[in-house]
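Posting for a labmate who doesn't have an account.
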Amino acid sequence: MASTAAAGTPPGPVAPKSRKSVTGTRRAVAVLFLLPAFVLLGALVVYPIGYSVVRSFYDQSGDGFAGFDNYEALFTDDGIRTALKNNIIWVVFAPAVATALGLVFAVLTERVRWGTAFKLVVFMPMAISMLAAGIIFRLVYDQDPEKGVANAVWVGVHDTFAQASAFPKAHPGRQSPLEAAGGGAFVTKEPVRAGEIVVLPLVGVAPDQLPDAVAKAVAPRAESGKVTGTTWQDFTRGKGVGTLNGVDPTEVGYAGMKIEAVKDGEVVASTTAGDDGTFTLPAAADGAQLRLPADNFKEPYNGLDWLGPSLVTPAIIGSYVWMWAGFAMVLIAAGLAGVPRELLEAARVDGANEWQVFRRVTVPMLAPVLAVVTVTLMINVLKIFDLVFIIAPGSAQDDANVLALELYRKGFSEDQPGIASAISVFLLLLVIPVMWFNVRRLRREVRR
């Protein structure tokens, strides 16, 4: 009976559970410790976001309600549209290139003994601030090959295959027998005759710009059946010194100058002046006009205008990749360390070459890491500001403009806080989907 009564007795009240977190800390204590962080988060993040949203609906003074006028300016203002276009270029290319380089570096450095040292060198730019990196690349992209490393290399490669002109600023002097022929060339005013001598005096080349092979100019000597002459620097230091259109002892020849004999618009003979400026043309030049082609006088190749309107955005993206490829490499290398080596060896045993192993096994296994790196860099480039502001010169800043820079310009330079607030809200809306995708992927990885 006792056991039956005990069995029929309703259970007593359940003791209340202790209000503790997963770690065993009381929730009240946890909230108390988190309160300062919540206050700072609200003051530094939540309040500015809320204020920007509200301010974006007001006019320049902040007193009148503007509705969606500020947001309409995002798609009608030329500067903002250029910034939006450049942001799209940044989002598409910068993360892709940085991630691809990081993947290549991570895979290749596994196969060399000095891989750790290489990773250190590639990752080192991450320790440099955007300001310092911008100053460095402003110098790297300098137009003058004497200063800019990029153009120094580019000009060196170019001049290896195409010889630069030695007389870029040469031109006829006073009472010269030469005249302009159009396109930068010069031609004799009168036809020349065989057996006669021709003088082709020029001025305008600085002494330090003359070719190394120059020698003292020599007066031409007549040769029967041939056209002979001299082309030289018709300039002697000192006022009143020297004979006009005559070879003086201190004057030098234009070594390597190209001379063409032209009849009826066709070149019938050509030659190159010697070190002393003298030249000889065959009898075919009789009755022709002598022409100094424009190739003699073209400006020396100074490389590319890296910071000009057409190349400034790719150039700045290149500096960004230099900084962030190391970040991508380190994260991908960490993911690569977790790839089972048995899978790679099995693929090789089955006859796959290294490219097939990389494309069919390594990349699919690293897909989650590659996605996280790419999305992280996409968030980063959406708010790029420092590099564009520092590297792009004033003349090309409009062409290199991005949304973060346009926000700064509207808010401070042009005193349009309403439009600046609208840009900031628009940037937030662009970043949120990318962040949401990244968070979802991270949670999915945790569940696995």
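Reply:
Got it, the structure tokens are right above this. DSSP finds 14 helices and eight strands in the chain.
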